């Protein structure tokens, strides 16, 4: 009997073992098939040790338990993955997968983490996913999913994180979400969800983060969600929620963020708000809330932002708010508040924005207002504020914007306002009862863009000193008692005459009344911006000189080598009239008929076809017998090794030809003859960005306006961000490598070079690839390596060209100083940013100027001399898009 049992055991062991071996080799087969389908970079199909492939982890039995293929720019059908039966983690996030989410994933019963976010999956969420009974984290955000949240997902009882945001899901939030007792994070923002928030959402007793903003949710915020008391972040902004704020929110002492703005919420703010000791961010603007601004906010010591704008609050500002030492923004505009700005508020020493505009405040402005030393925005317009503007206002040194219009202010304009040298955005004192002269000291506000002192009782002349306001664009002196000539100052004369009307005694342009001889000829003031350069700081001067010298030397050596190589090439071509094509292909199916490879080769033998010459290549225009025009790039200093690795190069080209991005010039084909490689591209008729910016003499009519330039800047940034995303470092970013299509859409060119001449691959003898002069990052002098931050630097130079219309190197800049140094040393020279920007654009409108200043900031970040401090290209794109949006 025992022997039999033993035998049974041995047999069982043997069977299970052979099963395992079977499963194991099956995982290998599956992975090989996956690789066949997706071509995963870094997977070596020849190595049988698949457990060591990138992103693959196995258990003790060589079964794949983790598969992480995130951020790899992959596409293809991922259904096969469902055959890796032991998977516990599957991360396919941030790729280009599209089509349906494979229902077969629902059979991965050991799966604990499934992340499919940031892809292009469409269709609805497969109900089969409800079979993932061990799932703890499901992330489907940032896809193109539609339809309802399937009922079957209620079976995911172990779920801790559930993220479906940024899709196009519709329907209502299912009640069973509340039954997910382990749920900690639920994010479904940016969808089309409607209906009510389920009452039992509160049963999800572990819920920490609830983010549902930008949907069409209706009805009240259920008190239940605060019942368990663990909520930390509540974001419901931009919905259609109504009803009162439940007092139960005070249960959640760990709640740091409450963002419920842009809804239809009613009622008062519950006093229990004071129990939320962690409250940092309370944003409830644009609702129908009413009652008082409760003093209980003062019990939230970490409160940083309090935004109650555009509601129906009444009463006064509770003095207790002065206890909020961390408060940075207090935004109460658009309510019915009255009384004073309480003195106690002046204790909020971190306050940088005080916006009480558009209320019924009827007190005075405290003379110690500038005890708020960090104040940048003081917005008190449209109230009933009385009394005088305190002289101490000059102490608000950081102020960017001062809005006091439409009040009952009396007295004079204190000359001390002229001390606020940072004042940039606006100085608005209009519609008050101010009298006396316009203080000449205002002329010191050389960054100020908009000045409005209209509708007061100001008298005397407009002081000629105001011509010091070098940044002025908008001005309004109308409806005062001013007299004398309007000073001759471009921003004044360019203003509409309505800016000066309503002053009986004013004369001169832009008013129609001439001043006659009474005031005689005014000493003509010609406002001239000096662009003269003071030499760069001595300390950095030597370093700059050294690195520039090294780079120039390298550059010269390479040029010489290339020239020799090319001369030799031409001599050969002449003796051999009809070169034989070794290899050639057109990648784009429907262009095969139109392109004749012999004609391509011939076109590159004629100098008259030459379009431009870059660091690594010369570009020719080739007209095909079919009439089609293609652009042909002949690689300079072709390396024999490239020819020897021809197949590799062709593979690389084919891969690049599939890189799909609107802002990249992709190869459409190639020809190789002798040791020459020609790359074919679509012909773009509008030339390069360099030509557009720096050869305006060729097209005197056309100066690209700011919106066009900003779009170009964003396009180039997007192209480059995409390259970095797929781990390609560009080797030669310059305005000369940015081509423009018929609609001035920018396309970044020469992307192949980085693959074909990549020194780390040992396929090129050019070991010092640096790019074009003026775009070379300073660190290159010692690292001799082009990196992603190096690319960001070069991009920053292109952005500076766009902003200044100046080339990257120019005789105008002193020796050793290029565009970057010139811009960065502007403060040392005492020049404001305005003096750097192309004045033909920055003076057109306030809006343009503001955007250009913001873009200049981005360019300065990109060209920071420390590589680590430069932003990533992705971030650059975001920053520029933000500028465009505003
Ligand atoms: C894999 O093996 C095949 C045939 O054994 C060979 O042709 C191929 O070059 C190998 N691939 C790699 C990447 O080593
Ligand atoms: C894998 O094997 C090691 C040692 O052989 C053991 O300590 C570990 O617990 C095993 N892990 C699993 C998941 O079986
Ligand atoms: C992927 O392949 C499976 C069969 O292997 C097929 O059923 C499915 O429709 C394919 N999915 C997509 C999105 O093409
Ligand atoms: C899941 O597994 C079951 C049983 O093995 C099978 O019948 C079913 O077709 C599988 N589902 C999918 C979607 O592959
Ligand atoms: C889910 O995906 C979104 C979008 O890619 C990402 O921001 C978020 O961090 C992911 N969540 C988790 C838990 O990985
Ligand atoms: C939630 O759980 C409760 C009790 O376990 C049950 O009565 C109810 O039907 C469940 N609700 C849903 C929508 O599954
Ligand atoms: C908002 O909700 C109300 C009912 O509370 C409804 O009448 C209205 O149509 C909703 N608006 C939108 C845009 O969904
Ligand atoms: C306030 O913030 C600090 C720093 O984040 C934190 O350590 C502290 O616990 C917070 N205070 C409260 C009451 O939450
Ligand atoms: C300010 O307005 C409030 C409410 O209208 C009024 O009660 C109060 O007397 C006013 N204060 C002053 C100083 O006019």
Automatic annotation (TrEMBL):
- What are the subcellular locations of this protein? Membrane
Its record classes its membrane topology as: Single-pass type I membrane protein
Q: Which SUPFAM superfamilies match?
A: L domain-like, Protein kinase-like (PK-like)
Name the chain's protein. Leucine-rich repeat receptor-like tyrosine-protein kinase PXC3
**Can you quote a single GO CC term?**
membrane
Return the InterPro entries for the record.
Kinase-like_dom_sf (IPR011009), Leu-rich_rpt (IPR001611), Leu-rich_rpt_typical-subtyp (IPR003591), LRR_dom_sf (IPR032675), LRR_N_plant-typ (IPR013210), LRR_R13L4/SHOC2-like (IPR055414), Plant_LRR-RLKs (IPR050647), Prot_kinase_dom (IPR000719)
Stretches assigned to the Protein kinase domain: 605-886
Q: Which residues cross the membrane?
A: 533-557
> PANTHER family this protein is in?
LEUCINE-RICH REPEAT RECEPTOR-LIKE TYROSINE-PROTEIN KINASE PXC3, LRR RECEPTOR-LIKE SERINE/THREONINE-PROTEIN KINASE-RELATED
Q: Which domain of life is it from?
A: Eukaryota
Instruction: Extract one GO molecular function annotation from the record.
Output: protein serine/threonine kinase activity
Predominant cellular place of this UniProt entry's protein = membrane
Keyword Transcription regulation recorded: no
Q: Where in the sequence is the signal peptide annotated? A: 1-18
Tell me the SMART domains matching this sequence. Answer: LRR_TYP
- Keywords of this protein's UniProt record, alphabetized? ATP-binding, Glycoprotein, Kinase, Leucine-rich repeat, Membrane, Nucleotide-binding, Receptor, Repeat, Signal, Transferase, Transmembrane, Transmembrane helix
Q: Which PROSITE patterns match?
A: PROTEIN_KINASE_DOM, PROTEIN_KINASE_TYR
């Amino acid at each position: 009997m025992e022997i039999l049992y033993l035998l049974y055991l041995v047999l069982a062991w043997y069977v299970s073992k052979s099963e395992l071996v079977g499963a194991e080799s099956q995982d290998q087969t599956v992975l090989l098939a996956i690789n066949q389908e997706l071509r995963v970079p870094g997977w070596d199909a020849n190595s049988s040790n698949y457990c060591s492939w990138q992103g693959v982890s196995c258990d003790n039995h060589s079964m794949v338990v983790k598969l992480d293929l995130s951020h790899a720019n992959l596409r293809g059908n991922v259904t096969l993955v469902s055959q890796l039966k032991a998977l516990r983690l599957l991360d396919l996030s941030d790729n280009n997968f599209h089509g349906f989410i494979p229902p077969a994933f629902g059979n991965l019963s050991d799966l604990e983490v499934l992340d499919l976010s940031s892809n292009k999956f469409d269709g609805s969420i497969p109900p089969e996913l409800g079979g993932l009974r061990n799932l703890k984290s499901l992330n489907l955000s940032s896809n193109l999913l539609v339809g309802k949240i399937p009922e079957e997902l209620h079976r995911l009882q172990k779920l801790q994180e559930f993220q479906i945001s940024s899709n196009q899901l519709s329907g209502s939030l299912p009640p069973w979400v509340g039954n997910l007792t382990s749920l900690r994070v639920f994010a479904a923002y940016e969808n089309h969800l409607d209906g009510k928030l389920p009452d039992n959402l509160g049963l999800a007793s572990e819920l920490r983060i609830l983010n549902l903003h930008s949907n069409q949710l209706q009805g009240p915020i259920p008190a239940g969600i605060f019942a368990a008391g663990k909520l930390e972040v509540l974001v419901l902004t931009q919905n259609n929620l109504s009803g009162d704020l439940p007092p139960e929110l005070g249960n959640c002492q760990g709640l740091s963020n409450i963002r419920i703005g842009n809804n239809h919420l009613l009622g008062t703010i519950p006093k229990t708000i004071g129990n939320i000791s962690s409250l940092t961010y309370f944003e409830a603007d644009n609702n129908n809330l009413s009652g008082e601004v409760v003093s209980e906010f003062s019990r939230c010591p970490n409160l940083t932002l309090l935004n109650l704008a555009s509601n129906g609050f009444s009463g006064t500002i509770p003095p207790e708010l002065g206890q909020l030492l961390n408060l940075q923004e207090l935004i109460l505009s658009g309510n019915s508040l009255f009384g004073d700005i309480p003195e106690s508020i002046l204790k909020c020493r971190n306050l940088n924005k005080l916006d009480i505009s558009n209320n019924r405040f009827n007190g005075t402005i405290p003379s110690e207002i500038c005890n708020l030393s960090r104040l940048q925005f003081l917005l008190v317009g449209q109230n009933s504020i009385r009394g005088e503007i305190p002289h101490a206002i000059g102490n608000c040194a950081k102020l960017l914007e001062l809005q006091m219009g439409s009040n009952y202010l009396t007295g004079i304009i204190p000359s001390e306002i002229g001390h606020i040298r940072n004042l940039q955005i606006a100085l608005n004192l209009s519609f008050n009862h101010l009298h006396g002269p316009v203080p000449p000291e205002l002329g010191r506000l050389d960054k100020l863009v908009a000045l409005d002192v209209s509708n007061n009782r100001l008298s005397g002349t407009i002081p000629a000193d105001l011509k010091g306001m070098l940044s002025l664009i908008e001005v309004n002196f109308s409806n005062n008692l001013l007299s004398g000539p309007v000073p001759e100052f471009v921003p004044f004369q360019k203003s509409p005459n309505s800016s000066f009307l309503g002053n009986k005694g004013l004369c001169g342009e832009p008013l129609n009344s001439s001043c006659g001889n009474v005031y005689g000829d005014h000493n003509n003031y010609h406002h001239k911006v000096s662009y003269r350069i003071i030499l760069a700081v001595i300390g950095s001067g030597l370093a700059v000189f050294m690195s520039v010298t090294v780079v120039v030397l390298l550059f010269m050596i390479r040029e010489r080598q290339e020239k020799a190589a090319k001369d030799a090439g031409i001599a050969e071509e002449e003796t051999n009239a009809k070169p034989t094509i070794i290899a050639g292909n057109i990648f784009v199916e429907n262009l095969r008929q139109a392109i004749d490879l012999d004609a391509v080769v011939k076109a590159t033998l004629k100098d008259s076809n030459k379009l431009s010459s870059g660091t690594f290549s010369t570009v020719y225009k080739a007209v095909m017998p079919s009439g089609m025009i293609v652009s042909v790039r002949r690689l300079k200093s072709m390396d024999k090794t490239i020819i020897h690795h021809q197949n590799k190069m062709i593979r690389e080209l084919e891969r690049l030809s599939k890189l799909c991005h609107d802002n990249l010039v992709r190869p459409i084909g190639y020809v190789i003859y002798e040791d020459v490689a020609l790359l074919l591209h679509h012909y773009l008729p509008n030339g390069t960005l360099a030509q557009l910016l720096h050869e305006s003499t060729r097209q005197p009519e056309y100066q690209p306006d700011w919106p066009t330039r900003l779009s170009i800047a964003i396009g180039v940034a997007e192209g480059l961000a995409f390259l970095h995303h797929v781990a390609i470092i560009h080797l030669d970013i310059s305005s000369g490598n940015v081509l423009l299509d018929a609609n001035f859409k920018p396309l970044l060119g020469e992307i192949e070079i980085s693959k074909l001449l990549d020194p780390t691959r040992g396929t090129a003898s050019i070991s010092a690839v640096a790019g074009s002069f003026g775009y070379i990052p300073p660190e290159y002098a010692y690292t001799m390596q082009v990196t992603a931050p190096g690319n960001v630097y070069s991009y920053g130079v292109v952005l500076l060209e766009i902003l200044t219309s100046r080339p990257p190197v120019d005789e105008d800049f002193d020796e050793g100083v290029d565009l970057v140094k010139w811009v960065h040393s502007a403060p040392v020279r005492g020049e404001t940013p305005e003096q750097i920007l192309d004045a033909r654009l920055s003076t057109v409108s306030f809006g343009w100027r503001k955007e250009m200043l913001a873009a200049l900031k981005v360019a300065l970040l990109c060209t920071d001399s420390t590589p680590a401090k430069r932003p990533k290209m992705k971030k650059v794109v975001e920053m520029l898009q933000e500028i465009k949006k505003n």
